[in-house]
Amino acid sequence: MPTVYVTRKAHFNAAHRLHNPDKSDAWNRETFGKCNSPNWHGHNYNLEVTVAGEPDDETGYVVDLAELKRIMHERVIDRVDHKNLNLDVDFLEGMIPTTENFCIAIWHQLEGALPSGELHCVRLYETERNVAEYRGE
Ligand code: NI
Predict the structure, then answer these.
(1) Which of 22, 23, 79, 80 is deepest in the core (most CB within 10 A)?
(2) pLDDT above 90: residue 54
(3) Among this protein's residues, is 93 annotated catalytic?
(4) Catalytic residue check, 126
(5) What is the mean pLDDT of residues 6-17?
């Protein structure tokens, strides 16, 4: 049977600050630039979650996209949308909320929660031009 890759997209807004408390203020300003702004700033994030598998004999689905949508909302979107990523989100605690770290954390939120298929890729757009992708390696 052929493997098919099915993707569900979602959108959310969140605030953050990139700051490494182990480093000096000067190092943080130099390293993170505008994303180190002490009074936070926001991004319009786009998330794409890809599930791989073979279409089911009875449904023709790799994964029921309505169910994938529900799981993405329950485990990720509802917990980060209109939130402060540094302060409000338990699964990002102790982490510098770069797109890279956030993307990996989203993978761990979804891994093992899918009704069928295998989690293949989490792609997180912080802006239209800045994207991180994680495939669980
Ligand atoms: Ni930023």
Answers:
(1) 80
(2) yes
(3) no
(4) yes
(5) 98
Residues, CB-to-ion distance under 5 Å, ligand 1: 35
Cα angle, residue 19 at apex, residues 17 and 24 outer, rounded to 5°: 145
Catalytic one among 16, 19, 35, 43?
A: 35
Going from the Cα of 79 to the center of ligand 1, the distance in angstroms, rounded, reads 18
Length of the chain: 137
**What is the Å distance from ligand 1's center to 77 Cα?**
18
Closest CA to 74 of 6, 10, 5, 7: 10
Q: Residues 17-41: what's their mean pLDDT?
A: 96
pTM of this prediction exceeds 0.90? yes
- The residues spanned by each domain of the chain are 4-134
Query: What are the tens digits of pLDDT across the range 62-72?
Result: 999 999 999 99
Q: Does domain 4-134 have CATH number 1.20.1330.10?
A: no
Kind plus residue range of the DSSP H or E element containing 96: none
60 CA → ligand 1 middle, Å: 40
